[in-house]
Design a protein that fits this description.
By secondary structure, the protein is mainly α. The chain is built from six helices and two strands. The protein has a two-stranded antiparallel sheet.
C-alpha cells in the first residue's frame, strides 16, 4: 500500500512553482496578458496539487472527488490560455462579451458532465488499487475523450492567435 512519493513530490513541486510564478507576476506590460498568465499558472498549480491529492488519498470516494476537481481545474486552463493569448497578441477577443459568455457556458456544460459522472458513468470509471502502489486506476469514457479533444482544439486556437 505504498504511495509513489516521488510522483506526489513532482506534482506538489509543479504546483508550488506555478503558484510562486503567479504570485510573483511577470514583467508583461499588458495588464490583460499578465492577468491571463496569472490565471493560467494558478489553474495549473491547482491541478498539480489536486493530482497529488489523488495519489495520497486513502479511500476511493476521496480519490474520485479529487480527480473530478482536478478535471475541472484542468479544463479551465484552455480558457485562461485563450484569454492570455488574445491579450498577448494585442487582440480583443478576450474582452468581447459573447466570447466570454460562450466560453463560460461551454465550461459549465462540460464541468456539469464531469461532476455528474457518478450518476451516468460516461466520463470515466475509476477504481482504487493498492498493488504495487496505491493509485486510482481510471478508464476514460467517450465524454472524457471528447472534452480532451475540445481542450486541445481550444489550445490550438490560442497558438494560432499568437502565431498569426
Amino acid at each position: 500500500m505504498a504511495v509513489s512519493w516521488w510522483l506526489v513530490g513532482l506534482f506538489v513541486l509543479s504546483g508550488v512553482t506555478c503558484f510562486a510564478a503567479a504570485v510573483r507576476g511577470s514583467r508583461l506590460r499588458n495588464d490583460d496578458a499578465r492577468r491571463g498568465l496569472r490565471w493560467l499558472l494558478s489553474l495549473v498549480g491547482a491541478w498539480g496539487f489536486l493530482q497529488a491529492g489523488v495519489l495520497v488519498a486513502g479511500e476511493e470516494p476521496t480519490a474520485v472527488a479529487l480527480y473530478i476537481l482536478a478535471l475541472t481545474a484542468g479544463f479551465a486552463t484552455p480558457f485562461a490560455w485563450l484569454y492570455f493569448a488574445s491579450a498577448y497578441a494585442g487582440l480583443e477577443y478576450h474582452r468581447r462579451r459573447p466570447y466570454r459568455w460562450g466560453g463560460a457556458a461551454l465550461y459549465v456544460a462540460v464541468v456539469g458532465l464531469k461532476v455528474t459522472n457518478p450518476v451516468h458513468g460516461l466520463y470515466f470509471d475509476a477504481t482504487l488499487r493498492t498493488e504495487p502502489a496505491r493509485r486510482l486506476v481510471v478508464e476514460e469514457g467517450a465524454l472524457y475523450w471528447g472534452s480532451l479533444a475540445l481542450a486541445y482544439a481550444l489550445s490550438a486556437v490560442g497558438f494560432y492567435l499568437l502565431y498569426r
